Amino acid sequence: MSIKVLIVDDHHIVRRGLVFFLKTQKDIAVVGEAANGAEAVQLVMEHQPDLVIMDLVMPVMDGIEATKKMKERSPKTKILILTSFADQDHVIPAIRAGASGYQLKDIEPDHLVAVIRSIHRGESELHTKVIPHVMNHLHYQEPANKIEELTKREKEVLAEIAKGKSNKEIAASLMITEKTVKTHVSNILAKLGLADRTQAALYAVKHLGL
Protein backbone atom coordinates (compact mmCIF):
# COMPACT_ATOMS: atom_id res chain seq x y z
CA MET A 1 0.00 0.00 0.00
CA SER A 2 1.15 3.55 -0.77
CA ILE A 3 2.33 5.93 1.94
CA LYS A 4 -0.30 8.69 2.06
CA VAL A 5 1.43 12.07 2.30
CA LEU A 6 0.10 15.59 2.96
CA ILE A 7 2.34 18.53 1.99
CA VAL A 8 2.18 21.74 4.04
CA ASP A 9 4.12 24.84 2.95
CA ASP A 10 3.08 28.44 2.36
CA HIS A 11 5.22 28.69 -0.79
CA HIS A 12 3.29 27.40 -3.79
CA ILE A 13 6.41 26.59 -5.78
CA VAL A 14 7.78 24.44 -2.93
CA ARG A 15 4.52 22.49 -2.67
CA ARG A 16 4.36 22.01 -6.44
CA GLY A 17 7.95 20.81 -6.55
CA LEU A 18 7.38 18.29 -3.77
CA VAL A 19 4.16 17.04 -5.35
CA PHE A 20 5.81 16.68 -8.75
CA PHE A 21 8.75 14.72 -7.35
CA LEU A 22 6.83 12.52 -4.92
CA LYS A 23 4.38 11.50 -7.64
CA THR A 24 7.31 9.75 -9.35
CA GLN A 25 7.55 7.38 -6.38
CA LYS A 26 5.36 4.29 -6.76
CA ASP A 27 4.95 3.76 -3.01
CA ILE A 28 3.98 7.36 -2.16
CA ALA A 29 0.59 8.98 -2.78
CA VAL A 30 0.13 12.73 -2.23
CA VAL A 31 -3.38 13.11 -0.79
CA GLY A 32 -3.42 16.88 -0.33
CA GLU A 33 -1.68 20.23 -0.01
CA ALA A 34 -2.06 23.06 2.48
CA ALA A 35 -0.66 26.62 2.59
CA ASN A 36 -0.85 26.99 6.38
CA GLY A 37 -1.24 24.97 9.56
CA ALA A 38 -4.97 25.57 9.96
CA GLU A 39 -5.71 24.18 6.50
CA ALA A 40 -3.38 21.27 7.22
CA VAL A 41 -5.15 20.27 10.43
CA GLN A 42 -8.46 20.19 8.59
CA LEU A 43 -7.01 18.09 5.76
CA VAL A 44 -5.49 15.64 8.23
CA MET A 45 -8.93 15.04 9.70
CA GLU A 46 -10.37 14.50 6.21
CA HIS A 47 -7.66 12.33 4.66
CA GLN A 48 -5.94 10.66 7.65
CA PRO A 49 -2.51 10.70 5.94
CA ASP A 50 0.30 8.44 7.09
CA LEU A 51 2.77 11.31 7.04
CA VAL A 52 2.74 15.12 6.85
CA ILE A 53 5.64 17.09 5.39
CA MET A 54 5.43 20.27 7.47
CA ASP A 55 6.96 23.70 7.02
CA LEU A 56 7.43 25.70 10.22
CA VAL A 57 7.01 29.41 9.43
CA MET A 58 3.57 29.94 7.89
CA PRO A 59 0.67 32.41 8.21
CA VAL A 60 -2.55 31.74 10.15
CA MET A 61 -1.07 28.79 12.08
CA ASP A 62 2.60 27.83 12.20
CA GLY A 63 4.01 24.34 11.91
CA ILE A 64 4.59 23.87 15.63
CA GLU A 65 0.98 24.54 16.58
CA ALA A 66 -0.27 22.50 13.65
CA THR A 67 1.92 19.56 14.69
CA LYS A 68 0.50 19.66 18.23
CA LYS A 69 -3.09 19.70 16.98
CA MET A 70 -2.45 16.91 14.47
CA LYS A 71 -0.88 14.64 17.08
CA GLU A 72 -3.84 15.27 19.39
CA ARG A 73 -6.44 14.51 16.73
CA SER A 74 -4.65 11.91 14.61
CA PRO A 75 -1.95 10.29 16.78
CA LYS A 76 -0.97 7.74 14.13
CA THR A 77 -0.08 10.42 11.59
CA LYS A 78 3.67 11.02 11.51
CA ILE A 79 5.06 14.53 11.08
CA LEU A 80 8.23 15.34 9.15
CA ILE A 81 9.42 18.92 9.58
CA LEU A 82 11.00 20.28 6.38
CA THR A 83 12.35 23.77 6.96
CA SER A 84 15.23 26.18 6.45
CA PHE A 85 15.76 26.68 10.19
CA ALA A 86 18.21 24.58 12.20
CA ASP A 87 18.36 26.69 15.39
CA GLN A 88 17.22 25.39 18.77
CA ASP A 89 14.30 27.81 18.96
CA HIS A 90 12.69 25.96 16.07
CA VAL A 91 14.08 22.45 16.55
CA ILE A 92 13.17 21.81 20.18
CA PRO A 93 9.53 23.00 20.03
CA ALA A 94 9.00 20.93 16.89
CA ILE A 95 10.30 17.73 18.48
CA ARG A 96 8.37 18.37 21.68
CA ALA A 97 5.22 18.97 19.64
CA GLY A 98 5.50 15.42 18.34
CA ALA A 99 7.49 15.56 15.09
CA SER A 100 9.11 12.25 14.13
CA GLY A 101 11.63 13.85 11.81
CA TYR A 102 13.38 17.17 11.22
CA GLN A 103 15.14 17.85 7.93
CA LEU A 104 16.38 20.95 6.12
CA LYS A 105 15.18 22.09 2.70
CA ASP A 106 18.57 21.50 1.11
CA ILE A 107 17.95 17.75 1.46
CA GLU A 108 18.61 15.66 -1.64
CA PRO A 109 15.35 14.35 -3.20
CA ASP A 110 16.36 10.70 -2.93
CA HIS A 111 17.29 11.18 0.73
CA LEU A 112 13.92 12.82 1.38
CA VAL A 113 12.17 9.74 0.01
CA ALA A 114 14.34 7.51 2.20
CA VAL A 115 13.47 9.64 5.23
CA ILE A 116 9.74 9.43 4.44
CA ARG A 117 9.92 5.65 4.21
CA SER A 118 11.97 5.42 7.40
CA ILE A 119 9.55 7.56 9.41
CA HIS A 120 6.63 5.58 8.02
CA ARG A 121 8.31 2.44 9.40
CA GLY A 122 8.33 4.03 12.84
CA GLU A 123 11.88 5.38 12.93
CA SER A 124 12.98 8.93 13.75
CA GLU A 125 15.03 10.98 11.31
CA LEU A 126 16.92 14.08 12.48
CA HIS A 127 19.30 16.15 10.40
CA THR A 128 22.80 16.08 11.86
CA LYS A 129 22.73 19.87 12.41
CA VAL A 130 19.81 19.59 14.83
CA ILE A 131 21.02 16.63 16.90
CA PRO A 132 23.18 18.74 19.27
CA HIS A 133 20.15 20.92 20.09
CA VAL A 134 18.04 17.86 20.86
CA MET A 135 20.84 16.42 22.96
CA ASN A 136 21.17 19.58 25.03
CA HIS A 137 17.51 20.35 25.53
CA LEU A 138 15.46 17.16 25.45
CA HIS A 139 15.57 15.44 28.77
CA TYR A 140 15.66 11.68 28.74
CA GLN A 141 17.45 9.41 31.16
CA GLU A 142 20.72 8.67 29.44
CA PRO A 143 22.00 5.12 29.86
CA ALA A 144 25.42 4.49 31.34
CA ASN A 145 28.36 4.64 28.95
CA LYS A 146 28.48 1.13 27.50
CA ILE A 147 30.21 2.10 24.28
CA GLU A 148 33.04 -0.37 24.83
CA GLU A 149 30.53 -3.23 24.78
CA LEU A 150 30.07 -2.60 21.06
CA THR A 151 32.17 -4.36 18.45
CA LYS A 152 34.29 -2.30 16.04
CA ARG A 153 31.70 -2.78 13.30
CA GLU A 154 28.84 -1.80 15.61
CA LYS A 155 30.69 1.41 16.47
CA GLU A 156 31.07 2.12 12.76
CA VAL A 157 27.34 1.58 12.20
CA LEU A 158 26.53 3.80 15.20
CA ALA A 159 28.70 6.57 13.76
CA GLU A 160 26.81 6.32 10.47
CA ILE A 161 23.46 6.49 12.30
CA ALA A 162 24.65 9.74 13.89
CA LYS A 163 25.18 11.15 10.38
CA GLY A 164 21.48 10.62 9.70
CA LYS A 165 22.01 7.82 7.18
CA SER A 166 19.40 5.20 6.38
CA ASN A 167 20.14 1.47 6.61
CA LYS A 168 20.57 1.37 2.83
CA GLU A 169 23.06 4.23 2.89
CA ILE A 170 24.98 2.66 5.78
CA ALA A 171 25.16 -0.63 3.90
CA ALA A 172 26.61 1.11 0.85
CA SER A 173 29.07 3.11 2.93
CA LEU A 174 30.38 0.11 4.88
CA MET A 175 30.04 -2.33 1.97
CA ILE A 176 27.81 -4.75 3.86
CA THR A 177 24.23 -5.91 3.23
CA GLU A 178 21.21 -3.96 4.43
CA LYS A 179 20.13 -7.04 6.40
CA THR A 180 23.46 -7.02 8.23
CA VAL A 181 23.01 -3.33 9.03
CA LYS A 182 19.57 -4.05 10.53
CA THR A 183 21.11 -6.75 12.72
CA HIS A 184 23.85 -4.38 13.90
CA VAL A 185 21.29 -1.64 14.67
CA SER A 186 19.22 -4.07 16.74
CA ASN A 187 22.32 -5.19 18.64
CA ILE A 188 23.41 -1.60 19.26
CA LEU A 189 20.03 -0.59 20.69
CA ALA A 190 19.92 -3.70 22.89
CA LYS A 191 23.48 -3.35 24.22
CA LEU A 192 23.14 0.37 24.97
CA GLY A 193 19.60 0.16 26.33
CA LEU A 194 18.27 2.67 23.80
CA ALA A 195 14.75 2.90 22.41
CA ASP A 196 15.33 4.05 18.84
CA ARG A 197 17.71 5.50 16.25
CA THR A 198 17.25 9.05 17.54
CA GLN A 199 18.57 8.12 20.97
CA ALA A 200 21.34 6.13 19.29
CA ALA A 201 22.37 9.21 17.30
CA LEU A 202 22.44 11.37 20.43
CA TYR A 203 24.41 8.70 22.27
CA ALA A 204 26.94 8.50 19.43
CA VAL A 205 27.49 12.26 19.36
CA LYS A 206 28.34 12.24 23.03
CA HIS A 207 30.26 8.99 23.44
CA LEU A 208 32.01 8.63 20.09
CA GLY A 209 33.22 12.23 20.10
CA LEU A 210 31.56 13.02 16.76
Automatic annotation (TrEMBL):
Write one Pfam family the protein is assigned to: Response_reg
Record-linked CDD domains? LuxR_C_like (cd06170), REC_NarL-like (cd17535)
Q: Which SUPFAM superfamilies match?
A: C-terminal effector domain of the bipartite response regulators, CheY-like
> Keywords in UniProt for this one?
DNA-binding, Phosphoprotein, Transcription, Transcription regulation
For biological process, the GO terms are: regulation of DNA-templated transcription
Keyword ATP-binding listed? no
Which residues belong to any copy of the HTH luxR-type domain? 143-208
Gene3D superfamilies linked: 3.40.50.2300
Q: Which GO terms describe its molecular function?
A: DNA binding
Xref: InterPro entries = CheY-like_superfamily, NreC/VraR/RcsB-like_REC, Sig_transdc_resp-reg_C-effctor, Sig_transdc_resp-reg_receiver, Tscrpt_reg_LuxR_C, WalR-like
Q: Which residue numbers delimit the Response regulatory domain?
A: 4-120
Q: Which residues carry this modification: 4-aspartylphosphate?
A: 55
Protein name as annotated:
Response regulator transcription factor
Upper lineage ranks?
A: Bacteria, Bacillati, Bacillota, Bacilli, Bacillales
